[in-house]
Amino acid sequence: MFAAAERIIRAGPVPVTVDAEARYGMQPHELVDRLLDIGAVGCNLEDSDHRAGGLREAGAHAEWLAAVRSAADDAGVPLVINARVDTFLPTAGIPGPDRVAEAIRRGALYREALAGLEASVRALRTEAG
């Protein structure tokens, strides 16, 4: 995935963020190092747990996002982190009536974890209309 992303980044003069999905099993510093090595300016990180199914526990995921932010800060790079909330995916295991409230709760945790920087919270679809 990183090789393909690097080819895209090197192909043009525009900044590119990488869809790092559920982090590919990497620790925060390793992920940030790989992103910076290929020239990415940011990443999308989802809270889906592809190994266990469902979603990662929100508090643990918020801590992990904070560690990614810290790793980027340690590298001296203002990496853009898009914290994606996956409560609307069928595999999330969140009952329909609870999805909006859970997305808002998770989004607030992730925004706080990212040190007040704008965390883009994307719902795949909305039931709010």
Automatic annotation (TrEMBL):
GO terms for molecular function: catalytic activity. SUPFAM superfamilies: Phosphoenolpyruvate/pyruvate domain. InterPro entries: Pyrv/PenolPyrv_kinase-like_dom, Pyrv_kinase-like_dom_sf. This is Phosphoenolpyruvate phosphomutase-like protein. It comes from Actinoplanes auranticolor. The lineage of its organism: Bacteria, Bacillati, Actinomycetota, Actinomycetes, Micromonosporales.
